[in-house]
Amino acid sequence: MSQSIKQPKIRPFWVHVVMALVALYFFLCAINVMGAGLKEIGKSTDWLQVAIAQGDNPLVALFTAVLITSIVQSSSFTTSLIITLVAAGELSVGTAIFAVMGANIGTSITGLIVSLGTMRIRRQFRRAYATALMHAIPNVLTVMLLFPLEWATRSLPGSDGKGVLMRVSEWLTQLIGLEPGTKPNSPIKAITKPVVSAIKDMAGWFTENTTAIGLTVAIIGLLILFMSLLGLVSNLKGALLQRLEGLFSKVIFRNDFLAWISGISSTVAVQSSSVTTSLMVPIAGAGVVKLRRVFPFMLGCNLGTTVTGVIAATANPTAGAVTVAISHVLFNLGDNAIWYPLKIIPIRLAKWYSGLASRSPRYAFIFLLTIFVVAPVLGLVITEVFFYSD
Question: Across residues 41-60, what is the average pLDDT?
């Protein structure tokens, strides 16, 4: 006697669309909730300003910015803070340039954290983690190339203690006149503000301690992130995946140039590379976008995030602030110019290490700890011993 096999119920296409949009909304909310909580902690202790402004040693500036950006999960926030400190005369231009380099590394952590949410499915995790690495690896490699160049050229005869990036930025500052302006509101922040405010208010019911409120909000944001990620990924698969794949492959990611432009424009629109790069992680992980198109998109995101710094500089239009903003643009232009022609190197590194991490997830955590904790802490200790010891 043959037994009928019960077929799984297939949801209509529109249901997948609605659920994916809801998951996407809470995904974006989660990023801003985490940032709001961590910024509350920073406001209560003033550790952000104190940490960045400590000393004039390039390694201290670099690693401190890596740590701060890793914690607040926003290079836009860090670079804007750096530029504001320069405009206020609390941070030298030379030190600020090295700090901006560190912010570029620190912003990569959001995508890496998001990729961990797909760890249960090995193939999906391999693609998602490779996507996150395609943002992290070029940033790390660019700093490894340009940081020693900037530091070494400060000691050349006639340099006046200024590195090549600083000198070019100062020259461009003299050629470009920027009018004072105001920072526009991010549309993402506007639409997610009700959720962020509600969670902050809810945390305030239980305690009046600012640090405790910030920590509570950040933890809630992390929980929302992983829950919304699961919902987003599950609805990107199946019927919705088949329809979106055509849109992405034939229009948005049809070629490298369009992918690059999409990275720039989307990051400028939302004023956050953390949002755009981390959103690409589950999309690529679900197979909607091919990995070869992810790389130019990530390069575009790096360039798009420099607009926030330029806006911050126009709001604080001192020569030093504009110089730092321009150096940020030049740094990411260099990142694009170096690694797109040599894209085979970061792409192969990302695919190799993501394969390693998918077979043994501990390698994903080792990379996170090494780049964002161990290396910065060791760098700070070493510079303290060799540069600041009596």
Answer: 62
Please tell me whether the overall predicted TM-score, pTM, comes out greater than 0.70 for this model. yes
pLDDT of residue 1: 46
Confidence of residue 178 (pLDDT cuts 50, 70, 90): very low
Three-class DSSP category at 76: helix
Residue 4 is assigned to a structural domain of this protein: no
Tokens representing residue 212 in the block: 């405790």
Reference 311, options 353, 368, 272; nearest CA is: 272
Cβ count near 96 (within 10 Å) = 26
Q: Which domain holds residue 262?
A: 13-387
Residues 127 and 286: their CA atoms lie apart, in Å, by 8
Residue % of the chain over a pLDDT of 90: 15
Q: Do residues 126 and 354 lie in contact, with contact meaning Cβ atoms separated by under 8 Å?
A: yes
2 domain residue, yes or no: no
- Please indicate, yes or no, if residue 261 is contained in any of the structural domains: yes
The count of structural domains within the chain is: 1
Residue ranges of the alpha helices (H) in 154-272? 164-175, 187-206, 210-236, 239-247, 256-270
Average pLDDT over residues 311-338: 82
Instruction: Provide the strand spans (E) within 97-181.
Output: none
Work out whether the CA dihedral 281, 126, 343, 167 comes out positive or negative.
positive
Q: Six-digit token pair at 139?
A: 């940033």
Return the half-sphere exposure (C-beta side, CA atoms, 13 A cut-off) of residue 260: 11
Give the pLDDT of residue 9: 58
pLDDT digits (tens, 9 = 90+) for 192-221: 888 888 988 888 888 778 778 888 887 888
Least confident of 211-220, 253-262, 372-381: 372-381
What gap in Å lies between CA 16 and CA 266, rounded to an integer? Answer: 23
| 106-110, 221-225, 312-316: segment of lowest average pLDDT | 312-316
| 122-138 CB burial, b ≥16 within 10 A, e <16 | eebbbbbbbbbbbbbbb
Phi/psi for 157 (5° steps) reads -60, 135
Residue type, 2: S
Per-residue pLDDT, averaged over 12-20, amounts to 74
Question: Does residue 84 contact residue 51 with C-beta atoms inside 8 Å?
Answer: no
**Terminal C-alpha separation, the chain:** 89
> Considering the domain boundaries, does residue 33 fall inside one?
yes
* Residue 204 contacts residue 213 (beta carbons within 8 Å): yes
